[in-house]
Amino acid sequence: MSLDTTPILLSATEEARRQIEICNACRYCEGFCAVFPAMTRQKAFADGDLTQLANLCHNCRGCYYACQYTEPHEFALNIPAILAEVRVESWERLARPQRLARVFQTHGVAMAGLLVVVLAWVFWAASVLRPDAGSGFYAYLAHNTLVAIFVPAFVLPLVLIAVSVRDYWREVDGGRVRLAQVLSALGSALRMKNLSGGHGEGCNFERGDRFSDRRRVYHQLTMYGFLLCFAATTVATVMHYLLGLEAPYPLLSPPKLLGVPGGLMMVAGAAGLAWLKLRADRSLGAARVWGAEMAFVLLLGAVALSGLALYGAAGSSLVMPLLAVHLATVMVLFLLMPFSKMVHGFYRLAALVAEAGKPAPTAGGE
């Protein structure tokens, strides 16, 4: 009678549980990031615990290069990759609608590119019906028309994200939220503390033997650039509706003083992140969604670059084609928020808030 030697294939969650339990016994990487102190609080891990640990992970990869149990060791640990897979699965499982999330994760570049082309053509075609009044790009598409299109395109994805984050909170048993937790989580997120590596020297995302803060800097450029652009839009809305000051605005005005630096920061940050992704080892992340992640980075860069180009082309014949491209990229970014990596900011902040509410781990994890 022969024994069946067929290897047992574990699900991502089961494999994560196996690897995390080995890490919890070793604890060599205990101070590397938020994941390792969190895992020491318990010895057994429910599915929700693994979802929480996966979303605490920032994929800096320092633990992999420090680990003595990676391949060819029989334990074959790869914590960055397995937590990345569990993290992506949590986004897909909790997203609404789930099927659309899965399609984007596997066909992100094609899906985003096709949507940009189609919507750019739609906006170009709509410019035929020019308004009777308006200046700048409002001479091609009326302000009220743009508001009617983009408000629902922005609000609906935020509602879907709120529902998915609510389900995430229930899955990880986040409990009651206190102000101190939120402030602690915001502090970590704004500083991107967990991208500084276990010893504050930076992470190993690019190469195992090289500590670098490049990834954190590029993330900060992208995030703060996006926030500046959002602030510019908010200020312009206030100026338009409350102060009666309509676009276009001069360079030395609040919308431009916020939006132009923000756009430049987004372009630099997105270009840097794309460059790092091309250099990094795909096997240490969720390789199956590499294209979707790259599509999101490129989309962010396209939004900022097309906005800057539109501003630079003011008064020329290039305004309408650039306006169509810019509006299309912005709308695609909004519409895909619940399914693209944009949602990781919401989940990661929720994970940090939940972690801030947990008791500090004690020696030995008892």
Automatic annotation (TrEMBL):
Entry-linked SUPFAM superfamilies: 4Fe-4S ferredoxins, Respiratory nitrate reductase 1 gamma chain
Organism domain of life: Bacteria
Signal peptide: none
InterPro entries in UniProt: Citrate_utilization_prot_B, NarG-like_sf
Residue ranges crossing the lipid bilayer per the database entry: 103-126, 146-169, 221-243, 258-278, 290-312, 318-339
Keywords: Membrane, Transmembrane, Transmembrane helix
Keyword Transmembrane helix: yes
This protein's record includes keyword Transmembrane helix: yes
Name of the molecule in the record: Tricarballylate utilization 4Fe-4S protein TcuB
